Amino acid sequence: MKPKTLVCISTHPAESPRPAEGIRIAAGVGAWKKTDVTLVLRGPAGYALTEYVDEYVDEDNFSRYLPIVADFGRPIYLENSFTDTDALEHSPWKYEVVTPQQVARLFAEHDHVLQF
After folding, report:
1. What is the SS3 assignment for 7?
2. Are the C-beta atoms of residues 70 and 23 closer than 8 Å to each other?
3. I need a labelling partner for 53 at 20 to 30 A (CA). Which of 63, 73, 86, 93 fits?
4. What is the DSSP string of 30-67?
């Protein structure tokens, strides 16, 4: 059985390069197919799923690598601590809203966790 890697992003993509870098790394590690990669976005990181990312730090990483992560066959998880649901009204991404308890379960179920 392949190991499982969870990439957890918690920072705002307009204020930090960490969300873009986390998505880039998730796409790269997942492309190796040596581990199953799952992405979870917490709090302001949910803005990474908006339709327009051109105002974000390193915006090319979102448009280039988020489609790769979305094609992994696993949901993109969005913790319900992200409350600006209007911002995601026209999101091109399929995502699943989860509770903090479900996120904690994801942490426990994965072999490796990367936090950004």
Report:
1. strand
2. no
3. 73
4. HHTTSSEEEEEE-GGGGGGGSS--TTSTTHHHHHHHHH
pLDDT at 33: 93
pTM of the model: 0.95
| pLDDT averaged per 10 residues in sequence order, the chain, 116 residues | 96 98 98 96 98 94 96 96 96 97 98 98
Provide φ and ψ at 111, rounded to 5°: -80, -35
Q: What domains appear along the chain, each with residue ranges and CATH number? A: 4-115 (3.40.1260.10)
Q: Are 8 and 116 in contact (CB under 8 A)?
A: yes
Q: Note the pLDDT tens digit of each residue in 19-47.
A: 999 999 999 999 999 999 999 999 999 99
